[in-house]
Amino acid sequence: MTQNLPFSQACENNKRPILEKLAAIFHAPGLVLEIGTGTGQHAVHFAGHLSHLTWQPSDHPRNYQLCLPRIRQAGLANLNSPKSLDVCQSEWGLPDSVNGVFSANTAHIMSWPEVERMFAGVARILAPGSAFCLYGPFSYEGQHTSASNLNFDRHLRSQNPSMGIRDMSDLIALADRCRLSLDEDLDMPANNRMTVWRRQA
Ligand SMILES: C[S@@+](CC[C@H](N)C(=O)[O-])C[C@H]1O[C@@H](n2cnc3c(N)ncnc32)[C@H](O)[C@@H]1O
């Protein structure tokens, strides 16, 4: 019975194309942290299909229990209980290193200082060479990739000026300060991107 669980139509639409990319990127067994898990639709779908991974969902303390009913219902051995994690916490309370990090549609919701803390925290816990997959809409040199992304960005900023679609040049500069490098920038449906950042040795 999934009817009463928190649900996002966007997650339903994008979970298959995202899985296709993650299967290639997270091909080796290991622990993957998800930041900003939301409803848990991604966590259940990816853990269900990538049984060689241990999937660790997490979300902001005000939100991390949202995914709990779905995760309990899925009953997957490789899907951990969600962790309360605000990327601004100085300690993330995780093992010293994880083998991958995934986050979808978070960079435009977080304020820029939060995005900075997310990259710094990811760089701290990611094993050298491992991937941070950040999915969502991004702009390039100040240009949006579609009219719908431009409208979405305007809508976000009107709701809260600290939100907004992030520009890839800002993310690359930030990543560089954190010793992360952009490895891939993959085209995804609905004007989204899968960006893959790797921890420098
Ligand atoms: C638009 S939702 C995306 C949820 C899900 N990943 C998806 O793709 O549907 C943004 C998520 O970012 C989380 N978030 C916002 N600020 C955060 C922070 N400082 N630390 C961790 N998560 C945060 C929110 O709680 C929310 O779950």
TrEMBL record:
Highest taxon, organism lineage: Bacteria
A biological process from GO: methylation
Record keyword Methyltransferase present: yes
Pfam families: DUF938 (PF06080)
Keyword Methyltransferase set for record: yes
GO-annotated molecular function: methyltransferase activity
Keywords, comma-separated and alphabetical: Methyltransferase, Transferase
SUPFAM superfamilies linked: S-adenosyl-L-methionine-dependent methyltransferases (SSF53335)
PANTHER family named in the record: UPF0585 PROTEIN CG18661
This protein's name: Methylase
Source organism (scientific name): Marinobacter similis
